[in-house]
Structure formats: C-alpha cells, structure tokens
Amino acid sequence: MRRFLVVIALVGLGCSDTKEGPAEPVPEGLETRSCTVELTHPNADEIAGDFNDWTPEPMLDEDGGPVWRAELEPGAYAFSFYVDGEAEPAPPDVFTRWHDGTEVRELRVGDCQKPLWRVDELTGGERIQARLSFVAAASSKAPLDPDSVSIFAGETELDEDAWSIDENGDVVVDFTPPAPGKYSLRVEGADTAGVAAENDGLWLPVWSEAEPFSWQDGLMYLAFTDRFRSVNGMRPSKPDVNLADIASFMGGDFDGVTEAIEDGYFDDMGVNILWLSPVYENPESAYTGSSGDLFTGYHGYWPVDPLSAESAYGGDEALHRLIKAAHARGIRVLFDIVLNHVHEDHGYCTEKPEWCAQTCVCGTENCAWEGPGGRPLDCQFAPYLPDLNYRNPEIVDRVLSDVIAKMEKFDVDGLRIDAAKHMDHVVMRQLRLRLDKLEDKGVAPFYLVGETFTSDRGLIMNYVADYELHGQFDFPLYYAIRSTFAHGGSFRDLEGAAAAGQRSYGQFYTRMSPFLGNHDIPRFMTEAAGNGQGSFGQTPDLMAEGPAAEVTQWDLINRASLAFVFTLTQPGVPLIYYGDEVGLAGDTDPDNRRMMPQTLNANQSELLRRVQELGQARKALPALRGAERKELWMDDSLYVYLRSDGTNVALVAMNKSDTPRTEDVTIPSAYGLSGATMEVWGREGLEASVLNGSLRVQLNPWEYRIIVPK
C-alpha cells in the first residue's frame, strides 16, 4: 500500500514567521528548509483537518496529481483526504491519530525556523562511515558553525581524525572502531546564529561487526532481573509483614546480569538477544493482586517513571554498564515496554489526572478481558493500574516520545511489547513508523515483538504487519510443545501446530518466537512432574534434589531436552526463559519466578550442557536458522524434520519413547543429498549415507540427533 507523506520543499519559499538573516552572505548552494507543507494524493479532490477547522477545501490538480500546500505552525494535525465528497479511511501504514471517534491521518510538521540534520549515508561494519547534511533554517539561512559540532560514538567523543567537514559543508564520519561492538553515533551542532538543529543530538544506532546481524538468526533469553543474579547482595526491606518473600524483591540486580554476560554465560548457550524484564522504577509499597495476596513491583510491570531505571536493580548507571557489556559481545538488548497501563503513582497521573481516570477491572462483572461484552482496550488489570487511552492523541505523543527517549538514553536495540491485544493499534503502529523513519537513515534494524496471550493465530496476526509488530510470541505452538513433551502428547499434534503456524504467519513466520516457558505460566519441569502446589505452595524442585555429583532425574531431563531440541531448531527467534535451562521448578505466578540457582548439581548441569550444545548448534548451522521446515517422518513417538536456509540442510530427529527406533527416512531429491555421507553434529564417528534416496535413522530411547552433510 502506498504511503502518502509530507513533502518539505527545500527551496527559498516564504514563511509565516520571518527572522533577520545572518550578517554574512548566504553561501552559494546552501540548502535551506521550507515552511511550505505539501501533500499529494492520486485521487483526492478535497482535504480537511485541524488546520482548516475541518472545512473541506479543494486540492489543486497539477501534473503529478492533486496537491495541497500550506504554511503551518509546528505540531501534529489530524486530517483526511476526500474522494467524491467522502472521507477516505486512513490506511494502516501511515501516521494516524483518533479524531472525533474516527482514526484519521496525522500530519507532522517540523519547525522550519530551526536547522536540521539530514543523514545522506550511514554504514556499519569493520569501518563506520556517515555523511550528514546540515539544512539551514528557512528565514535565517545561517550555515553550520563548525566549532559547534560534536560527534560521539557510544560514550566517546570522536576526535578530528574520525570526522571532518567537506567543501560542501557536509559532516563526513569515517573511522575504524578498536573492537567489535555497538558504536551508535550522536550528532550535535548549531548554525552560525547559535540555533541548534531541531533534531540535535541525533541518534544513529550502528554496529561494527564482521558479519551483519539478522534478527531471525537470534536466540533470545529472558533475564528476569530481580530473580536472575545478585552481585551486591542488597535486598530492599519488605513494606508489609504479611508479604511473602517470593512476592517482593529478592535482590537480583543489573550487575548480576552484567556479571553473567562477562562470564560468558549467554555466549555458551549461543544467546545473542537479551530480553530484560521491565527496567522502570516501580513503587516501593505492596498492593493486592487478583488472588488477594500482597505483591510489590519487583517484576517491573507497575511503572512510576517513564525514563528512570529501577533503583533496587542498581539504577541508570548499572543498566548502562549492562548494556555496554552486552554490546561488546554482540548481544542485542530488548526492553520490556509496558504501554497498556501505568501505576497510579506515575508522573503522568500527577500531571494529567484525567489520563488516569478509573474504568473497570478486567474480569469483573460487565468488564470481561475479551470476547462478547469484553472491554480489552480499556479495562484495568488492577484498581491501582490505570489504563491508558490511546484514542487520546496527546497520550500517544507523550508516551511514544518517552519510549524513544528511553531507547536513546540506554542505546537499546528492540522492544518487547507487553499486553498487545489490550491496546489500540494506533500506538504500536505509530511506534513502528517512528522507528522505521530512523531505519530509513540506515541505522541498525530494530525488532518489535509482542505478547498476545491467546491460542488464536488470527488474533496474533492482527498485530503483526510491515507497519506494526515484526513478530509475536507463538503461544499456540507453546501449548503444543507443553502437551507433547510435558504431558505425553503425540508428535502428530506438534507437527500439526507447527504447520498451522507456518500457514497462518506466512512471510512473518521467521520473526515469530517459539518458546516452552515464560514468566506467566507454570514451569515446564513442574508440569512434566505433575507436582505443582500452587502460587505460594511448596512445589518440590526435583532437579535440585539428590547427590551433587549424580544425575538422578533422567525422566525430567529427557523430556526437557527434547522440548528444547524442538524449540531451538524452529524458524523464528526462539526464547529461553531464565531457569528453564537448569530445570527450575515453579507453579503459577509468583512460584514460577524463583531465584535462579547459582550452584548447580549434576541434574541441573547436565540439562544446561545439553541446552548449551543446542544453542551452539543453532549458532553454527545456518540451516537451523533458515526459513524452511519440512516434516520427513512422523508418528506418535518418532519425529524427523528437515531444516534449510536455501543452501544448507540439517535434519532433526527425536525419539520420545522408551524403546529404540530404527526407520528408513526418505530424503527428497530436491535437497541434493543423494549419496551424501551424513554425520551427527557434535558427535564424532556417527555417520550414515543417503542411499537410494533414503537415510537410516537409529535412535535410542529419548535420544535426539542433529544430522548434517559431512
């Protein structure tokens, strides 16, 4: 679908707000901003909006089609094109806002009386290069003041060996970073009249790395900060004596995650995307949850400040250290963004009480979460969590400005969007478009992954598009993974779920995230053992029991191993939930958010070793990160499928029965494996040949193999 954008002519046109020009003559060829806004549409005959009190006025018919021009004050305006007297519905892939009960187009007008940085070139890699033009303010026409320019790469200001100003007045950046990592540019400057660029402090995320990164090559890990690892040993005191330990802060911190990064913990698993639980400052007090029990905001989902990092985790400085350490190892960092609601103590509620007006609590009478009579877009998750109404453009503007500011502040790489189905599309589409405008400058691609907790693939795809979320967590596949590996279900049903997702998600299949556990559901090991004792019960951690040096839980390890085999060899961006790699137990929230064990016994170490091996296989074998997945053999307990990136091929085979299995598996001739010698990845001496289009697969009970051409 075509996007109709604002066109700003860069010629000497008149302006509504004139200023005295510079004392010096305007340099020849100096590019200046125009105060004239120009909108085009192939079919419209009229236009109306906030700028003309919604009184339709004619579009001029020129050679390029209908055109409308005007001089407008800086700001955002709702408007619509009219075709044959009818307002055209706003397409989903342009900026929109709600006006008088209807979603219409949005026109965003900059301040033509300020200069502007424009990015003409930007490339990363072993060398980082950029070319930036300085477009002068419309009235003053003052050129760039060279002495005002500062350019930073990360936290380091570049010296004059790394950048220069050429004969055209363009800023040219060219330097070789000292080591691989992220070196986001920040550009500052003003004109000779002392006016800073409208987009001063321009943020240009860029990486120096030998191989370009693709999000679909990623393996994601959810580090639940308060429960992952503690370095300083601090644990905030509980605000209420009736508050259970597990329902409050347990002392995990940003420095704990940083320590794990620097220890190589994530590298060993092949993890290159780190999803951090929400980093917002949360309230110190305890509040009653839906179960009637008391909780604090240890989890991060009750934000009271849009920009500051949780002080109990170490605050801004510790978070900067974490992200810097991750970027030095090529690890991308995702922030968990809470857009649906804020806590009642949030600054928004203080500044704009009407933004935080009470509605109704989700799940109460006449206020269902979803379905007939449901109010998913405006019900509150709790009485103290006011829901944000994104049909108010002022809220959209403020919230997204703060989101982008937070991304810039911490130089973050992508976002996990909480509770996507409980928000109006306008906020996620606007967020994507704002990030796309940055990407148009050549910056490193961002990734937006959403949470829509449902088994309805159609509802999941309702929020995934080229103009909204890049992908979502694959909850329908999660249900099949749990059924197959934790509850003894059939591989037939698992293959059916995977195939259904492939059909439903189409071109976005490689951006979805398969997973076997997260922070809102009981732990895999507890479901596999069938021994859950409730949210605050005494669910045994069977993997933590037994002699320190003896593996005693083979039944659980085997089930979890095969679940990881399937999950980590699927197309998309698989997720590992902290603790699942060592078989941590836990029933429903908050029991599923136990403290991560720091000393492992033989059971936990064996499962971790297997997960590490699988993560390294995904990292080493391009076929496992490719888009193609084809079932080759399937019955209730034996499953063999092929993975390919179009060039490389790998087979994944699993036997989840208590007896050995041997089968001759047909390999389609299209993959060019006829007569090929195949070997088991990571295991020496295990070889077989493809003879007459068939490969003999032999698996012991609960064994798995990744088979590749030798």
Describe what is shown at a glance:
20% of the residues lie in helices and 23% in strands. The protein is an alpha+beta fold and 710 residues long.
Describe this structure in words.
- The structure is a single chain.
- With 710 residues, this protein is α+β, with helices and mostly antiparallel strands.
- It is 20% helix and 23% strand.
- The chain contains 13 helices and 37 strands.
- The strands form 9 sheets. The chain has a 7-stranded parallel β-sheet with strand order 28-27-26-25-22-21-29. Strands 3, 4, 7, 8, 9 and 10 form a 6-stranded antiparallel β-sheet that branches. The chain has a 6-stranded antiparallel β-sheet with strand order 30-31-32-37-34-35, with helices on one face.
- A hairpin with a 5-residue loop joins strand 15 and strand 16.
- Helix 2 packs parallel to helix 4, helix 9 packs antiparallel against helix 10 and helix 9 runs antiparallel to helix 12.
- The longest helix has 19 residues.
- The chain is globular, with a radius of gyration of 28 Å.
- The two termini are 46 Å apart.
- The N terminus is likely disordered.
